[in-house]
Design brief:
Helix content is 41%, strand content 16%. The protein is globular, with a radius of gyration of 19 Å. The protein is of the alpha/beta class. β1, α1 and β2 form a beta-alpha-beta unit. The protein has an 8-stranded mixed sheet with strand order 3-2-1-4-5-6-7-8, with helices on both faces.
């Protein structure tokens, strides 16, 4: 059906991105953006969609991906910013500058550029939704990979901060915060989890969580996903306000 909404999925050639494509492909027209051209094409073919090869560490890549979706289907309704990578290193003294930049470029910068590129196209469609794959490590400390954890905290902050301004254009934005997922990123450590008798999420669990979050209709939310639990809209605790004479209950001004 040509009237189905259009979804762009970055990092869609494998893992969580592929599972999201297969799940949303039942109701959406799908565009896969990934550095792996053959993998992206295979996933796109499996869901009767289209694909584009891009390196999302390049700031211009997000614009190319959005343009490919609009060119293929004349609109864009949902964007899933999913591409990511780990440093796989806990010792901050051992993380090289090149590795640091690679991880922050993909996990953090590419989310910013992805949102920035998507907003005009979503606005032109009358509104839509952006789903960012963050991590449980964006809500808690993660000593096994502090740089990865840092980037996920950053994108959750972006999601929460953009809810109000994007809402003016009818655009919702949410973050998915899965725990440990059995994908290629975790493959070197899967046996360790089995030995510890700790359950892992499947990529399909995250894809189902994406649908749950989209159907919920909220914005600025962080959805926690853990094995054996339904997706949970995480509730952030408020911070103390000022306590000064004459200013009780005062709220800061906003530019928007």
């Amino acid at each position: 059906m040509t009237d189905r909404p259009v979804v762009l999925i970055t990092g869609g050639a494998s893992g969580i991105g592929r599972a999201v494509a297969e799940r949303l492909g039942q109701t959406h027209r799908v565009v896969i953006a990934d550095r792996n051209a053959d993998g992206a094409a295979a996933v796109a073919e499996s869901v009767s969609g289209t694909s584009i090869q891009v390196d999302l560490t390049d700031p211009a890549a997000s614009e190319k991906a959005v343009a490919a979706a609009v060119t293929a289907y004349d609109r864009l309704d949902v964007v899933c910013l999913n591409a990511g990578v780990t440093t796989d290193e806990w010792d901050i003294e051992k993380i090289s500058a090149d590795r640091y930049r690679t991880v922050t470029s993909l996990n953090q910068d590419a989310v910013f550029y992805g949102v920035q590129a998507a907003v005009p196209a979503l606005r032109a469609s009358g509104g839509g939704a952006i789903v960012v794959t963050a991590s449980l490590g964006g809500l808690v400390g993660e000593p096994d990979d502090p740089v990865y954890c840092m980037t996920k905290h950053a994108v959750i902050g972006l999601v929460r901060s953009l809810a109000a301004p994007l809402g003016q254009h009818g655009i919702r934005i949410v973050a998915m915060c899965p725990g440990f997922v059995d994908t290629a990123l975790l493959a070197p450590h899967v046996e360790m989890f089995r030995t510890a008798n700790f359950p892992l999420l499947r990529a399909e669990d995250v894809a189902n969580g994406v649908v749950t979050a989209l159907d919920a209709g909220g914005t600025g939310e962080a959805w926690v996903l853990q094995p054996g639990r339904e997706p949970i809209n995480y509730v952030f605790k408020g911070v103390p306000g000022p306590r000064a004479e004459g200013f009780d209950g005062a709220l800061p001004p906003h530019l928007i």
